[in-house]
Automatic annotation (TrEMBL):
This is RNA helicase. Residues 14-178 form the Helicase ATP-binding domain. The keyword ATP-binding applies. Residues 200-377 form the Helicase C-terminal domain. It comes from Nicotiana attenuata (Coyote tobacco). Its EC number is 3.6.4.13. It catalyses: ATP + H2O = ADP + phosphate + H(+). Keywords: ATP-binding, Helicase, Hydrolase, Nucleotide-binding. Coiled coil: none annotated.
Length: 700
DNA sequence: GAGCACTGC
């Protein structure tokens, strides 16, 4: 067994686990908790009546850590020690120690809520507070009561706030294991810079000129700033006198870089050369860069946030938390003592920074989470009172219930429907699983499978255009299909069908500027979804080819109908005079179709009266991303449903919701009730608007 | 007419 700090605490750990159902283990990076805890427990016979599960928030971690453990145990990976991640299960009947992503464990728990195959469950990296880890923490608290005699739960975290987790698990013991990091000297700047790209440049050059060798890792917020700084660093370093300092290699690092660019940070630098790695927070946890001795921390991060009252996501630059600041600093001390330059005063750190990052569960739409929990049929389960380590707001839970009701996953009393149960089995967000099930009824399952799979990977399909490549792109117009004017979903379908006709040719993706990684992922998702749908599929699951296609307009129309049913919670109505839309069912706000959309306007420049959208995102303005034209006649039943909506009933009526909150969420619906009496009235109003519209068109 | 951090089933 490796000589890691945690090994010295083996007796104490085993003794504590023996006496307690839940134990929190705090261990800094390098303590060995991820690889050693499972082996210690295995050695002491804890895997005799079931496997030892270790969850990881990320796929690569599950794979790499299990590989290490298999090596240390001197067994073949996939036998006594294995891993399970989406699309890949490398375990067997022999497996005693199983590493898996927390998402996979959640899915397993859907089919076996008692998780009887495990005698020990270790939730690793709990401090990252991923949505899935938080759900698991809540489930473990319940499970421990039911399986007190034969289940041990360990929760491991890198940060010091074990107290909170301990209180959550009725004051369970907290063990602290030292890490194996080298000391990192922290330097704070005395005043916050106006421009942190400039400040990073200055600091980096100072280090380069004055400090001994060692790579520099710089944390910025996004691609734009990273590209700016890379350019400036190149300029500045060229102007430095040759031979006066080390050579320099400047590397950008962010998620939308192609993989071959990302792996450049893993190859060691040439001799006498200092590397400048300019990165997003991808280097905070997901990627570990060796050789870093200096860290420059801007103190900011770009974070996605969901607003349940408007249904909108926004991507905002926010201050990092103390936990994140420590994590960033720690990146300087992995190989030898390092230094971290913080581009903010220590007062700001102490007084302004939050102790911990706002957990994902408080920043996301919870429709999928709530549906998942409902489908577990937990005893005495009141969704508004589910015991989370940090509860999401009531407003956010009510928004989730409302959305689930609109897509028929729960009934008006908040009980899960049989449709909802089928939806929960699909690894998709509720709108997309609802679309698939409706498509199965309408006989367009094959097409829906394709669209839904494309959407599962959408952001990684088209390469993020950088400023430098923008001009090139404009001169080479895309040869990709245009969705026949009906919107982005139809375009995604057409793109995938074309790729299918090239027999999944990788070069075709490259020629068309589609990310290979993304397209291969789509293919995997489609395969997985097909396997799940196979049991209940009424028609063919295979990708259709144009040879077999008679009438694509009719086919697209049916598919759009299925999408409409799935996106009943994401429906928008165009204003009569212009192309602004109002999302229905949310606090009213005017939104635009995203300029990247292929949705076409008619001869008068008017967009469709109604569209469904995949996502509302606020950037410079609120936009609908991925929109699909729907027909007016489909809309009335959904409007009727919106009017009937009673959030109090949906939440089970067992808890008295805050009145004010309820009124905010019902704002729009109340207005609708005030202006029109029934769906039929609504229909006639739509018809009248349509006629005015046609009359105006006739005049021209 | 715009631009998007990172994960995961």
């Amino acid at each position: 067994m490796a000589d890691l700090p945690i090994v010295r605490f083996e007796e104490k750990i085993i003794e504590t686990v023996e006496k307690n159902p839940v134990v929190v283990v705090i261990g800094e990076t390098g303590s060995g908790k991820s690889t050693q805890l499972s082996q210690m427990l295995y050695k002491r016979g804890y895997a005799k009546s079931g496997m030892i599960a270790v969850t990881q928030p990320r796929r690569v971690a599950a794979v790499s850590v299990s590989r290490r453990v298999a090596q240390e145990q001197n067994v073949r990976l996939g036998e006594e020690v294995g891993y399970a991640i989406r699309f890949e299960d490398r375990t067997s009947e022999k497996t005693h120690i199983k590493y898996l992503t927390d998402g996979v464990l959640l899915r397993e728990s859907l089919f076996n809520p008692e998780l009887n195959q495990y005698s020990v469950i270790i939730l690793d990296e709990a401090h990252e507070r991923s949505l899935n880890t938080d759900i698991l923490l809540g489930l473990m608290k319940r499970l421990i009561k039911r399986r007190q005699s034969n289940l041990k739960v360990l929760i491991t975290s890198a940060t010091l706030d074990g107290g909170k987790v301990s209180r959550f698990f009725s004051d369970c013991p907290v063990l602290t294991v030292p890490g194996e990091l080298f000391p990192v000297e922290i330097v704070h700047i005395s005043e916050r810079p106006k421009n942190y790209v400039e400040a990073s440049l200055k600091t980096a050059i100072d280090i380069h000129v004055r400090e001994p060798e060692g790579d520099i890792l710089i944390f910025l917020t996004g691609q734009d700033d990273i590209e700016k700084l890379v350019l400036k660093l190149e300029e500045k370093i060229q102007s430095l006198q040759e031979g006066s300092c080390l050579d320099a290699l400047i590397l950008p690092l962010h998620g939308s870089l192609p993989p071959e660019m990302q792996v450049r940070v893993f190859s060691p630098p040439p001799p006498n050369c200092r590397r400048f790695i300019v990165s997003t927070n991808i280097a905070e946890t997901s990627l570990t860069v060796d050789g870093v001795v200096y860290v420059i921390d801007s103190g900011y991060v770009k974070q996605r946030q969901y607003n349940p009252s408007t249904g909108m996501y926004s991507l905002e630059v926010v201050q990092i938390s103390k936990v994140q600041a420590k994590q960033r600093a720690g990146r300087a001390g992995r190989t030898r003592p390092g230094k971290c330059y913080r581009l903010y005063p220590s007062m700001v750190y102490h007084d302004d920074f939050l102790d911990a990052t706002v957990p994902e569960i408080q920043r996301s739409s919870l429709a999928g989470t709530v549906l998942y929990l409902k489908s577990l049929d937990l005893a005495d389960m009141d969704i508004l009172k589910f015991d989370f380590l940090d509860s999401p707001s009531i407003e956010s839970l009510e928004d989730a219930l409302k959305q689930l009701y609109l897509v028929d996953a729960i009934d008006e009393n908040g009980s899960i429907t049989s449709l909802g149960r089928k939806m929960a089995e699909l690894p998709l967000e509720p709108s997309l699983s609802r679309t698939l099930l409706e498509a199965n009824e309408l006989d367009c399952l094959s097409q829906a499978l394709t669209v839904v799979s494309m959407l599962s990977a959408e952001t990684t399909l088209l390469p993020a255009p950088s400023k430098s490549s923008e001009k090139k792109r404009k001169h080479t117009p895309s040869n990709l299909p245009d969705g026949s004017g009906l919107g982005d979903h139809i375009q995604l379908l057409q793109i995938y069908e074309q790729w299918y006709q090239t027999d999944y040719n990788i070069d075709w993706c490259k020629e068309n500027n589609l990310q290979v990684r993304g397209m291969v992922f789509v293919r995997d998702v489609r395969k997985q979804l097909s396997q799940i749908m196979h049991k209940i599929a009424k028609g063919s699951l295979d990708v259709q080819t144009s040879k077999r296609r008679r009438d694509s307009q009719q086919e697209y129309r049916i598919l759009r109908k299925a999408l409409f049913i799935g996106y009943a919670n994401q429906l928008a109505e165009r204003s009569i005079r212009h192309n602004g839309y109002r999302p229905l069912g949310f606090k009213s706000e005017l939104v635009q179709v995203h300029p990247s959309s292929v949705l076409k306007a008619d001869e008068d420049g008017m967009l469709p009266n109604y569209v469904v959208y995949h996502e509302l995102i606020v950037t410079s303005r609120p936009f609908m991303r991925n929109v699909c034209a729907v027909e007016m006649r489909w809309v009335a039943p959904i409007l009727a449903k919106l009017e009937k909506l009673n959030v109090f009933k949906l939440s089970g009526g067992s808890s008295q919701p805050d009145k004010q909150i309820q009124e905010v969420t019902l704002n729009v619906e109340k207005k609708e009730i005030a202006t029109i009496q029934s769906p039929e009235d609504r229909d006639s109003r739509i018809q009248a608007a349509r006629e005015r519209f046609l009359a105006r068109k006739g005049q021209k």
